[in-house]
């Protein structure tokens, strides 16, 4: 189980930090949803967690600073799926997902039957088996997004950093993906951090929600503590009800402003 801890993290691209003074802990097997309006700094924070940006403060993956991990150690511990990756369009879905197995191979070794079986299982669960031999350049937007996630899930890293994993997915595929991630979390103790615009999904899957606004943490706690109509009005300028569905799930429902 891989725990993640951020202590007063500031990070950005040029001189001024985009996110400032972020402190949060995610226990091994926990799920942190990073939410907030456009431009709040969610993707920037995820890139910082992945050790891809310079900055101040400490980012600890199982107690070790992320910047001290070697490339291979990082790839074994941490799987990062960016929001809009550039894909090698000529590769098939299977070959692309197999790249997720690279950190587990010995130097110069090729993927074996065990790696193929991990990939086959992930493709099946993401409803991609029928497209396994299709080149990435010939997939729809939602299929490409699922291929990106197939690669990162095939990596079987202890910590998943997923930037808007449900973007472009229809309701059924989005739900199946989140259920698969949740299963990895429950069965293997995988730790998850995801940015999510869909606040109902954030409320239903995460156990901790971090609300960013203008680069700063404005609320942090359980979904019910953070996702209140008042906070949504204040930080998103949105009018919404937070409802409880029949089985107790929270639902964030936009309503027409009066
Ligand atoms: N590569 C970059 N170089 C400089 N500034 C950037 C870069 N990427 C993002 N920014 C700026 O950093 C700020 C935060 O962007 P970020 O992508 O982290 O926001 P976000 O919360 O993920 O937004 P969205 O919900 O729109 O995806 C924005 O003002 C953005 O313009």
UniProtKB/TrEMBL annotation:
Keywords: ATP-binding, Nucleotide-binding, Translocase, Transport. One of its GO terms (molecular function) is ATP binding. Residues 4-239 form the ABC transporter domain. It comes from the Bacteria. Signal peptide: none annotated. Pfam families: ABC_tran. This is Iron complex transport system ATP-binding protein.
